[in-house]
Design a protein that fits this description.
5-stranded antiparallel sheet, 28% helix, alpha+beta
């Protein structure tokens, strides 16, 4: 059976904080917490490592589309 360390999303990957029902990018770990940032940028929040889970295919597609739409609005 895989450990949590192997199944938890890594730095730079999209993930879901299931405790807050928020999707963000994993920025790092500090003090036993996972630091996450909203997909379109903003203030990081701390999540419990056992509550940070990979996205479903639908959630990932939606998050990536949000980024693309934001980039097209800003001319990137």
């Amino acid at each position: 059976m895989a450990s949590d360390q192997q199944t938890r999303p890594g730095i730079g990957e999209l993930a879901k904080d299931s405790a807050r029902d928020r999707i963000g990018v994993v920025m790092g770990e500090l003090g036993g917490r996972v630091q996450m940032r909203p997909v379109r940028g903003g203030v990081e929040w701390n999540a419990m490592p056992d509550r940070v889970v990979p996205l479903s295919a639908r959630e990932e597609l939606s998050a990536r589309l949000t980024v693309k739409n934001g980039n097209s609005r800003s001319g990137l």
